[in-house]
Write a structure and sequence with these properties.
By secondary structure, the protein is of the alpha/beta class. The chain contains 6 helices and 7 strands.
Length: 168
């Protein structure tokens, strides 16, 4: 079994009405100098597709004068006890490669961890941060797979919100 990493201190945490931990945020070192300047949200889940989305976002950010990259990782609902014990660790492990890529590029980031429905969680955070764009990797399910399993990308397109960049 893989040893759990030491976690930095979260800069924010959010709890629901029952006191369950439902959201966290972590900053890179050094942190984003101006997180509200031209914010872009990049959905990450630990997959190669998400890593391609991060690489695309970095390339776009490097071409801009200023761009704050926010990562979002959505976990399914956990019990109150499991959220306290596992939410941060699960997200930290799942976003390890994405954070490492940003660090290697010298691009500061902020990681947001939320619980719930993936599409709704991404959109809610994008609206909360006033994001200019959402970047997401395509899973390549095709029409049949998307119909059977659903698609976060399709859901985001139907729910509306900021422009969506889908990276193949």
């Amino acid at each position: 079994m893989r040893q759990l990493p030491d976690l930095p201190v979260a800069i924010t945490s959010e709890r629901d009405n029952d006191g369950r931990l439902v959201g966290l945020a972590f900053d890179s070192v050094p942190p984003l100098p101006t997180p509200e300047t031209n914010p872009w949200l990049v959905a990450v889940d630990g997959s190669d597709n998400a890593l391609r989305a991060v690489a695309h976002a970095v390339q776009q950010a490097n071409d801009m004068n200023a761009c704050a990259l926010h990562l979002v990782h959505v976990q399914p609902w956990l019990s109150k006890e499991a959220a306290e014990a596992e939410l941060a660790h699960r997200a930290w492990l799942a976003t390890e490669r994405a954070r490492a890529l940003l660090d290697a590029e010298g691009h500061p980031w902020r990681l947001h961890v939320v619980m719930g429905d993936v599409g709704k969680g991404i959109l809610h955070l994008a609206e909360q941060l006033h994001c200019r764009s959402i970047v997401i990797g395509s899973r390549g399910l095709g029409l049949t797979g998307s119909l059977l399993f659903g698609s976060v990308t399709s859901k985001l397109m139907h729910l509306g919100g900021p422009p969506l960049a889908v990276v193949p």
